[in-house]
Amino acid sequence: MKITVVGTGYVGLVTGTCFAETGIDVTCVDIDKKKVQMLLNGEVPIYEPGLDNLLARNLEKGRITFTTSLAKGIQGSDAVFIAVGTPPDEDGSADLKYVLGVAREIGQHMDDYKVIITKSTVPVGTSFKVKKAVQEELDKRKVDIPFDVASNPEFLKEGSAVDDFLKPDRIVVGIENDRAQKTMKRLYKPFLMNGHPLLFMDIFSSEMTKYAANSMLATKISFMNDIANLCELVGANVDLVRKGIGSDARIGNKFIYPGTGYGGSCFPKDVQALIRTADEHGHSLEVLKAVENVNYRQKSKLVEKIKGHLGTNLNGKQFGIWGLSFKPKTDDMREAPSLVIIEQLKAMGAQVRVYDPVAMEEAKHSLGETVVYAKDEYDACIEVDALILVTEWSEFRMPNFRILEKIMNQKLIFDGRNVYDPEEMRELGFQYYSIGRETINNQQEQPVQVKKAV
Ligand code: UDX
């Protein structure tokens, strides 16, 4: 079998490389010449664990190639995956110009049957717009070439995308007929070894599944963040509450970790898009609107705690930030809570030192020269008034607190991911704030319970 993947961003590249791994002949197309050249040399432009080795192996075996020519790239393909970007346009809805542009180009160049699959996350109904665009181009050429469209949303988590693709929980495919179903079944058969299902459904439901999945996950996080904030007020410990509810299989123990709010390229965008789709249909998604508001509020939560402790004038104060990417194991800075926190600290006059194991270069695009880029986690804490942990990279889990207390101006930690044990912080003599748990204030005799909302 031969497939073409259009767009070598994060989704397209993982998709193409993982299909090549099964022995399929893959051609990836991208308009960016520099990127195509890099990829042909085996260089991966994004940070995604395992992807470079997988790409190198498949390049060597000749199972994957890259080109800037879509016309050439789709020759002889059984299936074409569209995995180009859908950036939000001025009013926040997904801009489909790239997706539909690719659809038109496919229509201009295809010369035999293909399944044309939308992989990008797109509003419900887009696959039919793809169908129309392809058909219009075929009509212009006055040719009668059969094709089908399909929707095949991705559920890849950045940082474990290769694993998620190779061992999926489920694969969702929206199709219109048996012919397309047969092609998709053949393509995905190698990934069904772990017994998880390949779910076929109509195209509208498939497109909707992607949004519903991400919105449900975002809901779990915002719900937990709200509960964590209440835990602080009533003197409960959200760690225990989380375990208490998570062991109920109906709730589950995943995606109920409170923190600094969800970020990334999917949750914020998809939640907004679904709210918009519903509004357009005259239906207000009240739960999801609250999910978004809670997330917005949560990104400022640590700064509220800092203000509560140090006051609102932070002139002359310096902070060390651990973790910049929106989550560990990625260099993705999109919608990262660190950006909101740093902006607010700077607005109050503070100086900021930052360290991230992977995302430093990426962060420079957003932060420029406004912060000091430290060479490691300890360098980020030299003469700071507080350490703020924003992203829970595993290398921040067991720092040497003896070094920290020597280099910091004061022993003060704001932990946005509940990485440290409050008891240990008490023993070590640190003042310690986290999310939804007791505040440790070692400057006083007794630990202080936060009494009002911060
Ligand atoms: C997500 C979906 O998981 C994936 O299926 C979809 O296709 C793309 O969007 P991703 O954005 O890579 O993947 O990250 P994910 O690991 O899902 O985390 C999303 C955000 O939620 C992060 O900001 C993370 O820090 C936050 N989160 C996650 C929490 O705050 N608490 C949790 O318990 C879990």
UniProtKB/TrEMBL annotation:
It is an enzyme of class 1 (oxidoreductase). Its EC number is 1.1.1.22. Substrate binds at F155, L156, K157, E158, K210, F255, I256, Y257, P258, G259, G263, K327. NAD(+) binds at D30, K35, T86, T121, E158, K269, R334. GO terms for biological process: polysaccharide biosynthetic process; UDP-glucuronate biosynthetic process. Keywords: NAD, Oxidoreductase. Residues 320-422 form the UDP-glucose/GDP-mannose dehydrogenase C-terminal domain. One of its GO terms (molecular function) is NAD binding. Pfam families: UDPG_MGDP_dh, UDPG_MGDP_dh_C, UDPG_MGDP_dh_N. Pathway: Nucleotide-sugar biosynthesis; UDP-alpha-D-glucuronate biosynthesis; UDP-alpha-D-glucuronate from UDP-alpha-D-glucose: step 1/1. The active site is at C266. The keyword Nucleotide-binding does not apply. It catalyses: UDP-alpha-D-glucose + 2 NAD(+) + H2O = UDP-alpha-D-glucuronate + 2 NADH + 3 H(+). It comes from the Bacteria. NCBIfam families: NDP-sugDHase (TIGR03026). Belongs to the UDP-glucose/GDP-mannose dehydrogenase family. This is UDP-glucose 6-dehydrogenase. It comes from Maribacter algicola.
